[in-house]
Amino acid sequence: MTTPTTRAQTRVQQTGHGPAGAPHPAARGYDADSWLTHLTVDQGDPFFYDHPLDHVPGMLLVCAMADAVSDRVDVPAGARVKWVVNFRVMPELTPGLVLYAAPPENGRHTLRVTQGPTVVSDSWFTLTTDPEGDRPGAAPLPSAPAAEPARAFLVHRTRPENVMLGEPLAGDGVFTAPVLLPEAGHTLASRRPGRRSVKSVVEAGRQFATWLSHRVGGWPDEVQMLWLRLTAELPADLPATLPLALRWRQTRMSDDKARLTFELIAGEGPGTRIGSLVYVSKGLTPEAYRSFRAGAGAAA
């Protein structure tokens, strides 16, 4: 097991191997397929702390998982990923967080994030071969057309560069919103030139779920969104030039809990369904949020 450290920007410093690949002694107690990553929270980060927070945001955990896995797991060309993340407890700013990956079993990789003795999030993912190969990138495509970003306050963002969702359009009970491409150097940008990261698609879906909760569910602007669960099933490798959109077929929404299922659509017009995202969240009034924070902070 190796023990790297990752910052809030999810830049990983590998202490298991030096810059030139020289090995360092591995920690004991785990086999070669398990590892630890220590997370350091940077409250000055312009994406994760786009606005003041009294806790570690769920997207920091998601990005840390995605970046650590991409550094360590060989993802075959044309692979699809199914990824489930449960948010158990809202993590505090201190003490430090640790991401642990267990050895894979029957193709399933299990991750968990702990803070002291508490598991704040647990996750698993599988990789499978897309039956249609590299369908999203089969032919060169022109650059995805620019889309008008959604209003930042409706997706709980303040910096324009952190809005990953285009303005949604509604028609016949269906809402469709473009997935925007992060700028080069952004936390959500792919580490591979010309590609689009899974984490940027996940954030676009999270923002769409937030937008719908306010605009369709009628949740007041001051409601705090408590993220409970993410389920994603999508291609692991997407070209940056491929136009993407999220589609939601309207269903009933409650006053304080949302379960929103999105289709991931590739291409112009009706497009082709290439994946799905499911978000489960709970809305807390300011009074309920204060009570929640004063308690154990357990999400479920």
Write the layout of secondary structure elements.
Layout lengths: L4 E3 L4 E2 L21 E6 L17 H15 L6 E9 L9 E5 L6 E8 L2 E12 L39 E3 L2 E5 L16 E2 L1 H18 L8 E12 L2 E2 L4 E6 L7 E10 L5 E13 L1 H9 L6
Parallel strand pairs: 1-3
Antiparallel strand pairs: 1-2, 3-5, 4-7, 4-11, 5-6, 6-7, 8-9, 9-13, 10-12, 11-15, 13-14, 14-15
Describe this structure in words.
With 300 residues, the chain is an alpha+beta fold. Helix content is 14%, strand content 33%. The protein has three helices and 15 strands. The longest helix is centred in the C-terminal third of the chain and has 18 residues, at 198-215. It is globular and about 50 Å long.
Low-confidence stretches: 1-32, 137-144
- Tell me the major beta sheet: 13 strands, mixed
C-alpha Rg (nearest Å): 19 Å
Instruction: Estimate the mean pLDDT confidence.
Output: 85
The ordered H/E elements are EEEHEEEEEEEHEEEEEH
Find the count of extended strands (DSSP E, 2+ residues). 15
